[in-house]
Amino acid sequence: MKTLSIYHGVFTQKQYLKLIFANIINRFGDSIDAIAYSWMAYQITGSASWMAIVFAFNALPSVFFMPFAGAWVERFNKKKVMMIADMGRGILVAITAYLYWLNVLNPYLLIVFTVLMSSFEAFRIPSGLAIVPQVLEKEHYTTGMSLNASASQVAMLIGMAAAGAIVAIFGVAGAMIVDAVTFILSALIIGWIKVEHIKSSDSKKSTLFLIKEGFDYLKNVKVIFVLCLFGVLMNMLFTPIGILQTPYIVDILKLEAYALSVMGVGNISGMALGSFIFPMLSQKWRRQQIMSVGGFGIGLIYIGFTFVNGEWPLLFVYILLGLLSLLLGINSGFLSTSVGVSFMHHVDKDYIARAGSIFNAMVSASIPLASLLLSGLALILPILTIMTVYGVFAMTLFVFIYLTPSLKEL
Predict the structure, then answer these.
(1) Scanning 80, 85, 244, 280, which has the fewest C-beta atoms within 10 Å of its C-beta?
(2) Fold of 205-405
(3) Distance CA 275, CA 280 (A)
(4) Lowest mean pLDDT across 16-25, 55-64, 295-304, 374-383
(5) What CATH number was assigned to the domain covering residues 1-204?
(6) pTM to 2 decimals?
């Protein structure tokens, strides 16, 4: 119980707790949407290639709009921007569900609504980052962000568990209405947050100037630039498990789809646990060390997956997959929480929206690049070899990071 007392200070930050509550509602809705929206998109398009096109358009606003959104958000009331973004997404999801129910939704309309919803999200993310210093004291960044991350992962886990039942009972349209309601609830909770709007001194500067200023800030502050590279690197490391797990389960282990659920639950549970215990580790270890342990652990577990044999007793295989996925999630939680906390500690609060939006744009842009790299490797290498290569690469890289003295300030 003594170790849990580290979280005591966060519970004195009443306005930040409201923000966490809004994020929990949001993540619960997102996890339902991830299943319902994918199901709906496939029913409408009936094509894997169309699905890829829809999800590619989903990523475009994050890459192209977010740097502009981050600069624009700096001038305005962050709470109001968050409320408008959540309300906007809720209304768009409800309209999409209604059109689907009327059986008039087509692939082109789906792309339009997908881009609009992602555009609202491009404003929501930087404003959500920029409001944190206004509702959370800096001394509580580590515990506050860890609590938010772990609570969000638990909400996703519950949402994933509930999504199947919600779709079965209410249908895809009903599940999307539930998602729309969560956005509206999130907006109402954010409206309940008491925070003073601080008018930016940059309000007379042009948006393009603010964007350039944000890029210059990232370039000149070495530690922030390194953290952006870490964000891209995380996506590179997470790509194999996201893309290869289905062929790994079906073609290598010869198992049913239930094995994917076991891995998904294990991974999300591990991420929640890793984020939760991060503050306890940070009392004894530097963030650089925790990042290195997390990255090295991910590489080691990738290699561990290659030793699983589908011919072993089925229950044992499921237990092993669940355990490896849990450990993968814990190490992913260490790595992602380290990067997030370090980012908030090092970025000047006047640049958080801009720096955060550029960071997220870089990470989003790395997704298709990482996928293309993996697709190319899949043409010439077997799945287990690719997992081994990624594992060795991660272990080698994070040993180097651990031994690099200049990264101690992370």
Answers:
(1) 80
(2) Growth Hormone; Chain: A; (1.20.1250)
(3) 10
(4) 55-64
(5) 1.20.1250.20
(6) 0.83
